[in-house]
Amino acid sequence: MADPRGFITTPRETPQRRPVDVRIQDWREVYEPQSFEHLQKQAGRCMDCGIPFCHSGCPLGNLIPEWNDLIWRGDTQEAINRLHATNNFPEFTGRLCPAPCETACVVGINRDAVTIKQVELRTIEEAFSTGNVKPLIPDRLTGKTVAVIGSGPAGLAAAQQLTRAGHTVAVYERAAKIGGLLRYGIPEFKMEKHILDRRLEQMEKEGTRFRPGIDVGGELTGADLRRKYDAIVVAIGATKWRDLDIPGRDLNGVYQAMEFLPWGNKQALGEIDNPPINVAGKNVVILGGGDTGADCLGTSIRQGAASITQLEIMPRPSDERPASQPWPTYPMIYRVSSAHEETDNRLFAVSTEEFLGDGSGNLRAIRIVETKFVNGKFESVAGSQQEIPADFVFLAMGFTGPEQTPLLDQLEVNIDDRGNIVRDANFAANEDGVFIAGDAGRGQSLIVWAIAEGRSVASAVDRYLTGDTQLPSPIEPTTRQLMV
């Protein structure tokens, strides 16, 4: 263990965020630097709890007490080895994961949990800064080839693991650059894209081949893939967005979040000066109170919106863990993101009834109504309607599964009632040699689950190609059967 009394003597402290009036003037990440000594003290709060429930809270099975202890002792080399043993991309999860490990932390029963996520992030950043993240080139090649379709966290994790096992792996991406939602959905102020690029550089040196800008299912068909590759991993995510079919949906100014956020990233990176969707000086309404809604909020602030209102149909969560969600489960509590620190005008328990136009086909306002949850459904509160001025509305209400692209028909995979691609306990689709990873088979989920599934599908593909595998699988077939 680390400091035997650390969790008693040292209070939980996370790094300071840059002042709001400073950070909204740029697109850089919001946190101030943290000294290594401060990090060590926080890692020292990890206690000898006997049964580390943080392991079960983390889908990757990260060896959290081990690398906390190593950081406290100053052994950064062995700490990154332990961290990389279970997680290909701790620099992604350390920035983007909601940290279910922390809500499962034993210290969190009656004190503030260990800052696991921050220790993870600083461990990998320390490793990059000291040159301790090196390409792991396989000793030999197997002669087997694998196509990975989709370059989000699941596809990248699968590709890196399979490359290291000696297979020749090509990652296909329809967008102009590799990264999926990591590149086009996550705003720069949450993760600067050079963080992604340096990991892709490592993967290229290991031997992974990247093929961006290719429409798989169009110019490259499923039949082409079958002829060229011994196995196919479909990791196309769950990008079919949930829509809102109410009057006025066709007005100019109503967009999906993922129609807006990529342009914000291009603007942040200086690739364009004036994006097609630009809310500067405009009234913005965001429908949806999750992470995607917060991303739209922070992007709108940096573009210079005149006003921003965020709506959520659910009631405001409590500040404390609800009795129905006891430790070590992940609780639905009231959370304040960095974007909410910058502007927080959230309305809870409201529903949108209509998008209102100006008579020329443009959005001018929305009509909302207060709601209450009765007998398992939402009911409107009589007489509670009101209008909110809106030049732009962004729908951030989640996703319903993978897009039904021609590729899925060409590969002849089955789709379940939820719209996800059917796979068995070994992540295999109904067609031989086709495997499904991440949100495409699981449905919309967390980045940490995507990486866990990518690592697990790599183990399954390696066994399929060679008859055996030494690749670890965070999600074992027996466990997955219980989950399903």
Automatic annotation (TrEMBL):
Gene3D superfamilies: Alpha-helical ferredoxin, FAD/NAD(P)-binding domain
InterPro entries, per the entry: DPD_II, FAD/NAD-bd_sf, FAD/NAD-binding_dom, Glut_synth_ssu1, Glutamate_Synthase, Helical_ferredxn
Single GO BP term: glutamate biosynthetic process
GO molecular function, one term: iron-sulfur cluster binding
Keywords: Amino-acid biosynthesis, Glutamate biosynthesis, Iron, Iron-sulfur, Metal-binding, Oxidoreductase
Pathway(s) where this gene product acts: Amino-acid biosynthesis
FAD/NAD(P)-binding domain boundaries: 145-454
Sequence ranges assigned to domain Dihydroprymidine dehydrogenase in this UniProt record: 23-127
SUPFAM superfamilies: alpha-helical ferredoxin, Nucleotide-binding domain
Entries under PANTHER family matching the protein: GLUTAMATE SYNTHASE [NADPH] SMALL CHAIN
Official protein name in the record: Unannotated protein
